[in-house]
Amino acid sequence: SGHRSKHRVQNSHSLHAAMAKKQAARKGKKVLCRRLSKSTLRSALVSGLKAKGGRKDLKFEDAPEVASKVMNSLPPEERAGYPVVLTKDSVDPRKWVTHQGVKIEVDFSRARWLPDDWGQGVKTTCATAKSKKGGGGGILTSFVGPDMKVFYHREKVEEYIGRKLTDKDGFNGQVKLAKLQATQAVQLARMQIKEVNKGGAQGLIGTDAPESLFKTLSQSERKHLPRKEEFHFCIISARRATSPEGVRDIFMVQSQLIETGIQPTWYVDEASLKDYRALGLNAVVGGKLCPSRNKALKDARKLKKICVQLSDDISAWEYRDGKQAETRDDDAANAAHAASRRIIASPLAAASFIVAKMRAAEDPKPKLGGVYMLGSCARAFAGPAFSRYNFILGDFFVVDHGSKVDFDEEMKLKEDYDFTCSHIKAHGSIMRCNRMTLNVKHYSNSGGAVTNRDSKGVEEKRNIAILNQKWPGVFRPNWKRKNEVIMKWPAAAGVHDDDSGASSAVQVTPRTMKAMKAVKKGVVKAVRKTVAGLSATTVVKFTGKDANQAYITTRCKKASGKSLDAILGKMKFKDASGHMATYGRADLNYDLQRGFLSKAKK
């Protein structure tokens, strides 16, 4: 952001001074941390204006210092209330005043219906006979025309323009609002990570220099750092380019990649392609979730590049550099986490770091790498900084050259669990950075990777059943989270459960046992259903139904016309990664349940 600093002007000195004075008055008092959101900067602006106005009858809270610093670093042009289009005769928004001469500050928000050549601001109001001490108010939203005509209500603007205004009139303004809020969300996330509210320089906060992250690598690992040109960055998304919230998230990720010189490819569904391209994005049709992921993998192979896949709502990458806790308990882990050094990594630096770790790792060398699956890695400080057999989150991962593993397109959810297992089976291990985390709101988004979730959890349960069929003994139910699972790769010495925290032992409580028995019962019931009436001499046949994965169709054709005795534990086939595998009971259960194989008639 340094190259733009010369364009940034400090035009709110009096406003900043008023806020600083009020914040100084509360210095030394304990202030609770408040959650920052998309409306935080506007709240900071309003709070500052009230402080500047000096009205004693108003009651209001100070804005978080983090928000105040970001707010004061942004010139009028980078606020949503600034006109989308400045006509030749438009009044400079810096000079906006009412006809009584009251200063109007450019707003951080924007009405959905406001035309492109109009702006939105806020101004202070004077106390009246009706004003009560300790009351609210004191601020008025103002709609400012190109000629600086000021109105305070939509109907008055429509009356002045001479027609009704709709959301169509304000669409470009809403896109601008979303883009700006995306950039501001990144700034707020970075400032929170850096704890700038405890002191520090004012202005835009960039990511830390890549070298600050790479210094944590060994000399041998640094030799494996890839060049920027070796990556193919892929963002998996769908149906998010038409809502303000979706556009905001899209540009939140896009801006961070552009900041590092990366032009990503967006993999979207066909119906959304036009909308994504209308935003100026490099978008291609990928299809639904897993088909999009597979197309991204295949494109990277074709380009002979490292595939990086990320979700469309990440506001920050954070790495914690510090020593492992001396004892395996929460207090020690939290203390080690608090003492660690925080690094804000760019997506490029994060991907490069993971690849270097993967390539320098001892055999078996992993081809899949990723980050810790929770927003905080505090509990991970009780264990090693890197692990080789744990779950890799689908929100951000890298796949190096030489991997032919694809996603199972029969799965609609939990595909990243299956992908992790497939990689461990094909390449012997993965590489997870347990000190690297994401700021992401993936679970609550509309569209994208969460589209197939439903309120009753039917899809979740169906996909959990598939996981248990394909990878028996690897997953157990997460009793803390409904319709979630915990992965533990079998026969991996020293590997801890993803959800077990500081303790390496599985905590067996009555509730846990009940949940485990329920899942086991469901799996056994499913197996009995698929193999009922089958024996060693039973012959199976290919039904003609093609699987999305070509290797599954090939193995079913190979098994067709043979008895179970001849194929179970004996028949060889090439799996998704191109390696030879032995056909087993899990494969049979899957092929029968999905309708690719059936019992042949005598």
Keywords:
about 600 residues; single chain; disordered N terminus; elongated; 8-stranded mixed β-sheet; alpha+beta
Would you kindly provide a written description of the structure presented here, covering whatever features stand out?
- Helices cover 35% and strands 14% of the residues.
- Helix 1 (13-25) packs across helix 2, helix 2 (40-53) crosses helix 3 and helix 5 (171-194) packs across helix 8 (244-259).
- A hairpin with a 5-residue loop joins strand 20 (572-574) and strand 21 (580-582).
- It is elongated, with a radius of gyration of 28 Å.
- An 8-stranded mixed β-sheet has the order 7-6-5-8-13-11-14-12, sandwiched between helices. Strands 1-2-3-4 form a 4-stranded antiparallel β-sheet.
- The protein has 602 residues and is of the alpha+beta class.
- It contains 18 helices and 22 strands.
- The termini are far apart.
- The longest helix is centred in the first third of the chain and has 24 residues, at 171-194.
